[in-house]
Amino acid sequence: MNLGLTTTLTDTDFADAKQRVTDALADQGFGILTEIDVQATLKKKLDEDMEPYTILGACNPTLAHQALGVQPQIGMLLPCNVVVRADTSDTTGRSLIVEAMNPDLMVSVTGEAGLEPVAAQASELLGNAIAALAGN
């Protein structure tokens, strides 16, 4: 099982990529609940430098409600994390990787068959968002 759904954005900057990801997710019913700037946090807390790396906590309220109805502990795996990060293999610095958590992980981690339809729908919607980014 893949950990995530992935695409690469080229010829863009980090701010534009984050906005495109946010818009693509919104088109599929996801809002952003949290944003963690990993690069800034590691610099501030550890004085370590790294490439741009942001974790977006995406939530589709309908799917979250359904999942919580099946398994209240599933909240520990919510929201669906989407990462926007620099492609360190790109020497031009103009490629960014977007990765969304594979919702099927919720089912495999919990073993809860009742989460399968929710994970399938979340996979479809996140897949649509990633595909829309890939088409841009």
UniProtKB/TrEMBL annotation:
Gene Ontology molecular function terms on file: ATP binding
Q: Which PANTHER family match?
A: SLR5037 PROTEIN (PTHR38342)
A Pfam match is DUF302
Q: Which UniProt keywords apply?
A: ATP-binding, Nucleotide-binding
Q: Does the keyword Nucleotide-binding apply?
A: yes
InterPro entries, A to Z: DUF302 (IPR005180), TT1751-like_sf (IPR035923), UCP021774 (IPR016796)
Q: What is this protein called?
A: ABC transporter ATP-binding protein
Query: According to the lineage, what is the superkingdom?
Result: Bacteria
Q: Where is the DUF302 domain?
A: 36-91
